[in-house]
């Protein structure tokens, strides 16, 4: 697999190219600029990113991270308008939080792949001087063909400052900062730049007259997860007014079951930040008996490199919120259940202080008096909302009968920029009353917790 160093270029074909962004640490967003020969965009439509996932021609597209891969930009060189000279790939820190820089990001890697050719990779040099955006790579015209060049040039003022230098009119924050200007040494220009061409950062004119572009990330809106799906909600971990609400909703199913009571209960098993580990297995992974959570503590000075699950299995001092232990939003665990419904409807819990949360597993329990019907037949689902425009529904897809426990969704607060919600839908063994266990690394063990019968 060819790997370019900063400033190097290689010839590529005119077939569709997919560029993937990989990074370790704080999240990095990927975007693209369609640039004319004068070093400027033709209009604000030439910035392709999370708020504007395609240019007008459809030749450049932004694809969010999903089950098919990480965040990506697709470029079809043959379909680019004739007045577009190059497409520049940009990495940037979250525009909602100006304190984040590339100092907290490691191993920034772009992987550009074309059908029939080996992928080309570029690792950006470490950026430790407060940079919040970086020019990563560009695909540009070279005569009748195309070339791909590695850039690796950082900007201090993030995507907003970089976009402004290329002629995008961006909504200014209350306190505007000056973008770091790219180095204009000859070694930093494309090897075949025409004599006298001016780098974009040194061209003071701006061609855009449209309304300023908003770079802040929008809320998700309403999303329903597929089986095994996951989605991220952007959260400001320092926002003390933020309340994440997680609800178990159910209609009871048939009239007969509603007459029996159809009493489901919402349980929130949780691992606080102080005990959370970044483990070897992905959070939400189902593990067997004897699993020992191993990994690096999420918070320095927190849990050790390995923790045993025995305490949680015994049920004494377990980290759980349910109808007998409602919790609190004023003190730890900063999770509180609103009460026990006992009839079809809704049970909700409020989660505050996301900086104090590691993993929260949302489970439902069906009392013996409900009979043998499946959770799905009760119309059970979990709904998570941040109260800021993002609502995620986690439905059930299986008709598993004679099961008294289901782990429905995992809310992973360990991401730097928010929370990731994963569809789990894992059922207890037949006829067992043992509660699930959530380990310190976010893994889940079914049929391992205490037994506690509910008395009506």
Give the termini distance in whole angstroms. 64 Å
Give the low-confidence spans.
173-191, 193-209, 304-316
The global form is elongated
Q: What count of helical segments does DSSP give?
A: 3
Approximately what portion of the residues adopt beta-strand conformation?
35-45%
Rg (C-alpha, Å): 26 Å
Q: What value does the average pLDDT take?
A: 83
**SS-based class:** mainly beta
Query: Helicity range of the residues?
Result: under 10%
Order of adjacent strands in the largest pleated sheet: 13-26-25-15-23-22-21
Biggest sheet architecture? 7 strands, mixed
- The strand count comes to 30
Quick overview of this protein structure:
The chain has 456 residues and is mainly β. The protein has helices at 158-165, 255-260, 310-314; strands at 3-4, 9-12, 17-25, 29-35, 47-48, 60-63, 72-75, 86-92, 105-114, 120-123, 133-142, 145-155, 221-224, 230-234, 244-250, 264-272, 277-279, 293-297, 306-307, 320-321, 327-328, 335-337, 345-351, 357-366, 381-385, 390-395, 405-412, 418-427, 437-438, 444-445.
Folded structure, characterized:
By secondary structure, the chain is mainly beta. Helices cover 4% and strands 36% of the residues. It contains 3 helices and 30 strands. It has helices at residues 158-165, 255-260, 310-314; strands at 3-4, 9-12, 17-25, 29-35, 47-48, 60-63, 72-75, 86-92, 105-114, 120-123, 133-142, 145-155, 221-224, 230-234, 244-250, 264-272, 277-279, 293-297, 306-307, 320-321, 327-328, 335-337, 345-351, 357-366, 381-385, 390-395, 405-412, 418-427, 437-438, 444-445. The strands form 6 sheets. A 7-stranded mixed beta sheet has the order 13-26-25-15-23-22-21, with no helix packed on it. Strand 29 and strand 30 form a beta hairpin. The longest helix is centred in the middle third of the chain and has 8 residues, at 158-165. The protein is elongated and about 80 Å long. The N and C termini lie far apart (64 Å). The model is unreliable at 173-191, 193-209 and 304-316 (pLDDT under 50).
